[in-house]
């Protein structure tokens, strides 16, 4: 399974379902990586995923990847993403769908825009903020 590291990469388990949110984010992270950054072009740092490949199939390819992207947003909502964050995520998906539907150029756009990775990063940032701002239970001395 692919793992992510970097800023906002960890979820400590407080707020918005704790361990449940962490497991959902891990599942969504896997889906996003498969869609946007599964493979690397040899000799470069350019990564691409199923979104760019399947998008080469006119209409059906973009429709299929858009459904998976919408699923990621719906699951993010169940993790505690607010209305503004969901709207931002849907905006990323819409831009990816519209621009990605242009034959050939759309697949090139998909390689560089990576809407799903952006959405997971936004979700992680939101959950990290919620984790920091959530009240922690007081520790009682033993």
Kindly report the oligomeric state of this protein.
single chain
Mean pLDDT: 86
Number of helices: 6
Major sheet: arrangement of strands: 1-2
- What structural category arises from helix and sheet content? mainly alpha
Could you describe the largest sheet, including whether it forms a barrel? 2 strands, antiparallel
Share of residues in strands: under 5%
Which ranges are low-confidence, i.e. pLDDT below 50, for 5 or more consecutive residues?
A: 1-15
N→C terminal distance? 40 Å
Helix and strand run: HEEHHHHH
Shape: elongated
Counted beta strands: 2
Rg over CA atoms, rounded to whole Å, is: 17 Å
Q: Report helical residue fraction.
A: 55-70%
Task: Describe the fold and architecture.
The chain is mainly alpha-helical and 142 residues long. Helix content is 62%, strand content 3%. It is built from 6 helices and 2 strands. It has a two-stranded antiparallel ribbon. A hairpin with a 6-residue loop joins strand 1 (39-40) and strand 2. The longest helix is centred in the middle third of the chain and has 19 residues, at 60-78. The radius of gyration is 17 Å and the shape is elongated. The N and C termini lie far apart (40 Å).
Give a summary of the structure in a few sentences.
The protein is an all-alpha fold. The chain is 62% helix and 3% strand.
What brief labels describe this structure?
mainly alpha; two-stranded antiparallel ribbon; 142 residues; 6 helices
Q: Which helices and strands appear, and what pairs or packs with what?
A:
Blueprint (H helix, E strand, L loop, with lengths): L18 H18 L2 E2 L6 E2 L1 H5 L5 H19 L4 H18 L4 H9 L1 H19 L9
Antiparallel strand pairs: 1-2
Helix pairs in contact: 1-3, 1-6, 3-4, 3-6, 4-5, 4-6
